[in-house]
């Protein structure tokens, strides 16, 4: 069974801030860190893109050094692990592109990263910059859409 995804208010605030700050025609994104409880992935930290990220209309390449620093800090703070990444698309509905899927496949195959599954959160932005958020769990074999909850439970 696929896990549900929960993004804490703190992590979601970071994403909202980065989305609001960026020029609308460029993608932005960052890594997602948190805890894997098996049937629930809890995202507690969302990374910003970092100064050396490459952003264009149809792809986002994160700043790897910056991501590694964020990951080390989160692990130090509460053993949060690198779960996946978020990025924007300049269109709705959001769905992983072939470029995205190729990059996730590289992560899953990288023995240094030891991912069993990779969380992809994509924020599709329409003409009014309204966000539509969706999530997928990527494994070596399948790409599965999963439910995502944002912010603290009411
Ligand atoms: Zn994409």
From TrEMBL:
One GO MF term attached to the UniProt entry: metal ion binding
Gene3D superfamilies according to UniProt: Cytidine Deaminase, domain 2
Signal peptide extent: none
GO biological process, one term: proteolysis
InterPro entries: JAB_dom_prok
Keywords on record: Hydrolase, Metal-binding, Metalloprotease, Protease, Zinc
Presence of keyword Secreted: no
Domain JAB, chain residue ranges per copy: 14-125
A Pfam family reported for this protein in Swiss-Prot or TrEMBL: Prok-JAB
Protein name (Swiss-Prot/TrEMBL): Integrative and conjugative element protein (TIGR02256 family)
């Amino acid at each position: 069974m696929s896990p549900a995804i929960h993004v804490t208010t703190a992590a979601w605030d970071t994403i909202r801030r980065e989305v609001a700050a960026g020029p609308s025609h460029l993608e932005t994104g960052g890594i997602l860190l948190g805890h894997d409880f098996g049937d629930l992935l809890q995202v507690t930290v969302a990374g910003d893109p970092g100064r050396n990220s490459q952003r264009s209309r149809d792809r986002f390449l994160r700043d790897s050094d910056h991501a590694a620093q964020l990951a080390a800090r989160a692990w130090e703070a509460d053993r949060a692990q690198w779960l996946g990444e978020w990025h924007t698309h300049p269109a709705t509905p959001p769905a992983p592109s072939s470029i995205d899927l190729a990059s996730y496949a590289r992560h899953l195959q990288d023995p240094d990263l030891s991912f069993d599954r990779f969380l992809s959160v994509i924020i599709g932005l329409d003409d009014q910059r309204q966000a539509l958020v969706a999530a997928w769990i990527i494994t070596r074999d399948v790409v599965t859409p999963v439910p995502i909850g944002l912010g603290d439970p009411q």
